[in-house]
Amino acid sequence: QVRLVESGGGLVQPGGSLRLSCAASGIIVSPGSMSWYRQDPGKQRELIASITRGGNSNYADSAKGRFTISRDKAKNTVYLQMNSLNHEDTAVYYCKVPPLWGQGTQVTVSS
Fold first, then answer.
1. Does residue 52 contact residue 35 with C-beta atoms inside 8 Å?
2. What is the pLDDT of residues 68-95, one digit of tens each?
3. Paired residues of 68 in beta bridges
4. Are 91 and 20 a contacting pair, CB within 8 Å?
5. Quick one: which of 44, 47, 59, 72 is 20 to 30 A from 89 by CA?
6. Starting from the edge strand earliest in sequence, which strands make up the sheet with 3-7, in order?
7. How does DSSP classify residue 73?
8. What residues form DSSP beta bridges with 72?
9. For residues 13-32, average pLDDT
10. How buried is 67 (Cβ within 10 angstroms: 0-12 exposed, 13-18 middle, 19+ buried)?
């Protein structure tokens, strides 16, 4: 059974950093695109960053210069390094490996 398991969320002060991980298990073939989304209550889920099998990455404007997406093909794991976090980054973060979604991990930026 294919599943995605996320980890790394938590509470961080403004200006701090977090690293999210999403491990895809039960997959035989290395996934194509792997992505991170986030969602605030009452808002639509938005794409934050994505990375292809070849390593090409794309970012939302809100993430450029602060977040870095990477992947470990051998481990079928995608990471999101988040730096210079601010209150607007507070959300539930989800990884996506089509057609699957992770369970979500809460990121709270607060002093």
1. no
2. 999 998 888 999 999 999 999 999 999 9
3. 81
4. no
5. 72
6. 3-7, 18-25, 77-82, 67-72
7. G
8. 77
9. 88
10. buried
